[in-house]
Amino acid sequence: MAKLTVEDLKKIKEGYKAERALREGAFRVKVTVHMGTCGLAAGAREIMNVIIDELDKRGAADVAVSTSGCAGLCSREPMITVQLLDEPPVKYCDLNEEKARRIVAEHVMGGKVVEELALVRGCETSY
């Protein structure tokens, strides 16, 4: 068996910290991929894979990625919702791989809403 190096130990430690932070809810950003039947048919699974790939490339351990069902706008799928800590959620629609990569780079990592791709900012409320 090969000996562990300091770099190996650092990778293990960072992986553990990331898993623990997500379990404890200590994340900076939450990305929700809407994966109802309509979203899946429109390519939501591919969008989710792109988002996870981009986050992995950037080493973003403080971002939670989750799924939800239909958001009620089937004709605008695939859709995601991005919510930075202490900020209102932003819903993005009509996504493709290029748009998803841009949202990760600019909004998730950079903190700046991609206005031309955003459908709405804020929470929906029912009475």
What would you say about this model in short?
The protein has 127 residues and is an alpha+beta fold. The protein contains four helices and five strands.
Folded structure, characterized:
With 127 residues, this protein is an alpha+beta fold. It has one domain: Glutaredoxin. 41% of the residues lie in helices and 19% in strands. The protein has four helices and five strands; from the N terminus they run H-E-H-H-E-E-E-H-E. The chain has helices spanning 6-23, 37-42, 44-58, 97-109, and strands spanning 29-34, 63-68, 80-84, 90-92, 118-121. It has a five-stranded mixed sheet, with helices on one face. A hairpin with a 5-residue loop joins strand 3 and strand 4 (90-92). Helix 3 (44-58) packs across helix 4 (97-109). The longest helix is centred in the N-terminal third of the chain and has 18 residues, at 6-23.
Mean pLDDT: 87
Second-tier CATH architecture: 3-Layer(aba) Sandwich
How many structural units, i.e. domains? 1
Mass-distribution shape: elongated
Distance between the termini: 62 Å
Give a quick account of the main beta sheet: strands, pairing sense, barrel closure.
5 strands, mixed
Percent of residues in helices: 40-55%
Low-confidence stretches: none
